[in-house]
Design goal:
Blueprint (H helix, E strand, L loop, with lengths): L4 E8 L6 E9 L5 E9 H4 L2 H4 L7 H11 L5 E2 L1 H14 L4 E4 L2 H16 L10 E4 H10 L2 H10 L12 H9 L10 H17 L14 H4 L16
Parallel strand pairs: 1-5, 3-4, 5-6
Antiparallel strand pairs: 1-2, 2-3
Length: about 240
């Protein structure tokens, strides 16, 4: 099977690293799922001082505690998570790794890997990289229809820029205009797979290996620095 994608999401305790939640779904372009994985990083998640400073710290009690109680997620050492990621890429012949704002996830994982193992590289094999944010802005969110819907529902930053985060992209792609993103790794992967599926359906050129390019400027060409255009304040 060709064009197998691993759509990844991480949740971090800060903007530089300390990944505590890793999730991914392996699928084809049509969104057909082959495998999924989710684990909490034992070395990070068990450190209260780090976790209570996390951006989504309140989810420790509202989301993660119930998930652990129900057995929906477990804790694993970081090295085991990386080993599983590497082996799944090989087993499923993954050709592309994708994420919404993948530059952030790659940096966070690299920093966490270096901090916990002393090694620099998480991925051992060469693989195409696809920023779903970039693809969504090029294929879906720069349309007049998205701008019209975004303005009508108030998906606009205080500076007047159209928001382009995964939550808003999914609202537009799914038609569920009241959707609220969970900000837990695997649940966010689910919506990102659907956004990606919708982008592939447009038959637009796929922006492989284009990331860290401020894709919100595709939707807001005259935007200056605006921490809100990703969907929530991230800078």
């Amino acid at each position: 099977m060709k064009n197998i994608i691993l759509t990844l999401d991480t949740e971090t305790a800060d903007l530089s690293g300390n990944v505590y939640d890793v999730g991914y779904i392996i699928h084809d372009r049509a969104g057909n799922e082959l495998a999924r994985f989710n684990a909490l990083v034992e070395e990070i998640f068990t450190q209260p001082k780090i976790m209570m400073g996390a951006f989504y710290a309140k989810k420790l009690f509202s989301h993660y505690a119930p998930m652990l109680d129900r057995g929906e997620v477990g804790m694993m050492p970081w090295s085991d998570i990386v080993d599983r990621l590497r082996s799944d890429i090989v087993e499923y012949n993954v050709s592309t790794i994708a994420a919404y704002n993948i530059g952030f996830d790659m940096r966070a994982m690299s920093n966490t890997h270096r901090s916990l193992t002393g090694e620099a590289r998480v991925l051992q094999s060469k693989i195409k990289v696809l920023d779903i944010w970039q693809f969504a802005c090029e294929a879906k969110l720069k349309s007049r229809n998205y701008k019209r819907i975004a303005e009508s529902f108030g998906w606009v930053s205080p500076k007047g820029n159209i928001k382009t985060g995964a939550e808003f992209a999914y609202r537009f792609c799914s038609g569920d205009h009241g959707f609220i993103e969970d900000h837990t790794a695997l649940s966010d992967c689910v919506i990102e797979v659907e956004i990606l599926r919708q982008c592939f359906k447009t038959k637009k050129k796929i922006p492989y290996n284009v990331y860290n390019k401020a894709p919100w400027r595709i939707v807001n060409p005259s935007a200056g620095n605006d921490a809100h255009v990703h969907g929530s304040v991230v800078a």
